């Protein structure tokens, strides 16, 4: 196979190759595979009621295609619990962002209605997944898929060790 020297390549082809290289470097990792199970116990207002946060998830994304999505986010009090959940049946959409992905729903209100929630709630659902090396920061704003709870837990997961850190 004979190789052409760079000087013989056309200018448009050289520009196209340079543009492709810059675009490829600017994109986040093409895929994400995260599986975690976390919990933490806190005292409300420092010395009040004991609260237990528990989250478990499986998230697999390739580019803009969600291969698998299941996340249950719970808050337990001494007498009752609250839960938020999202999965592939909620018709999630993935958008590639500068730092990772943004997950939204085709129809958040319909997903909420399928769960049988009867209280009026925002039909908003956006979950940002920001990857920094082995750290995955999860920033939810998805009240539509929560029963009595306001939102999913915001947390950071080390994808290598599985250790979680809940945001305050």
Q: Please, what is the average pLDDT? A: 83
Sketch the major β-sheet.
Answer: 6 strands, antiparallel
- Bin the helical content: 10-25%
Supply the number of structural domains. 1
Strand line-up in the sheet with most strands: 5-6-7-8-9-10
The number of strands is 10
| Radius of gyration, whole Å | 21 Å
Class per helix and strand makeup:
mainly beta
Principal-axis shape? globular
Distance between the termini: 60 Å
Strand content: over 45%
- SSE sequence, one letter per element: HEEEEEEHEEEE
**Unreliable spans:** 1-28
Give the helix tally.
Answer: 2
Keywords: Signal
Signal peptide: 1-26
Can you offer a commentary on this structure?
It is globular, with a radius of gyration of 21 Å. The strands form two sheets. Strands 5-6-7-8-9-10 form a six-stranded antiparallel sheet, with no helix packed on it. Strands 1-2-3-4 form a four-stranded antiparallel sheet, with no helix packed on it. By secondary structure, the protein is mostly beta strands. It contains two helices and ten strands. The chain has one domain. Mean pLDDT is 83; it is low at 1-28. Helices cover 14% and strands 46% of the residues. The longest helix has 16 residues, at 11-26.
